[in-house]
Design brief:
heterodimer; A: alpha+beta; three-stranded mixed β-sheet; B: alpha+beta; 45% helix; globular
């Protein structure tokens, strides 16, 4: 698959630095994984996302503990590849539709927590999440009439807090 | 050792001075400690904001170790 980008470079060339380091990590780490790259249209932008879709005997390992290995691989590969930001932010690592399943789980968790906040009138802290996951939670409750959301904490401890919107307490 | 090369490959890809990357494997009975040394100005590149890069390297290392049924830890030397 060869998709022309606005700069006229093919997708293959654009993603080559990422693929190079990814293949080294997979080989030297002894990971039994292969991947396909597909360009996926998104609602948010005219440019497609590049989904690195992994499969193979180590798919389970990739998805353990909320896909911590999948996230770690994505993070390291994107850092190391030093792609221009407009390319880098469109790359997503995925396996067995994990991103989609996880987003649904997060939206459901957000709704349930919001109901509890409304019922009890007290704030609820969700478990720590990365920026992408927190964003899904914030968006899920953006138009909720009775709760507000904030992120609190630092680094890997940062988490979403849900408040009754009537509460003056934003801490 | 492949695992040592794994850390070398990741570190070299992250830093500005790849030829200054040195990884030493110290093998104990239960665990192998991998000592990573980089050019002083590259320290931030292997540690990352709030330690996220180092944490991600350790996650990859842990998973590779699990496959080999061995325990590895990463020490980043300052």
């Amino acid at each position: 698959m060869d998709i022309a980008s606005p700069t006229g470079q093919s997708q293959e060339n654009l993603l080559a630095p990422a693929e190079r380091i990814l293949q080294q990590i997979l080989r030297r780490g002894g990971f039994e994984l292969s991947y396909l790259i597909r360009a996926q249209e998104t609602a948010a932008s005219d440019n497609p996302e590049f989904v690195f879709d992994f499969s193979g005997p180590d798919a389970e390992l990739l998805l353990e503990r909320n896909a911590s290995l999948l996230d770690a691989l994505e993070y390291i590969v994107l850092r190391a590849a030093r792609l221009p930001a407009e390319i880098s932010e469109r790359i997503v690592f995925d396996c067995r539709a994990w991103r989609c399943t996880r987003a649904e789980e997060l939206r459901l968790t957000a709704q349930i927590a919001a109901e509890r906040v409304v019922a009890t009138g007290t704030r609820i802290e969700l478990t720590p999440m990365n920026a992408r996951e927190r964003r899904i939670v914030h968006l899920a409750l953006k138009d909720h009439p009775s709760v507000r959301t904030l992120s609190e904490g630092f680094g890997s401890d940062r988490r979403v807090v849900i408040f009754p919107s009537s509460s003056p307490d934003t801490r | 050792m492949e695992i040592k090369e794994l850390i070398e490959a990741i570190a070299k890809a992250l830093v500005d001075y790849p030829d200054q990357v040195v990884v030493r494997a110290v093998e104990g009975e239960q665990v192998t400690v991998l000592e990573l040394r980089v050019h002083p100005s590259d320290l931030g590149k292997v540690i990352g904001k709030q330690g996220r890069t180092a944490r991600s390297i350790r996650t990859i290392l842990g998973a590779a170790g699990m496959k080999l049924k061995k325990r590895f830890t990463l020490e980043i030397l300052e």
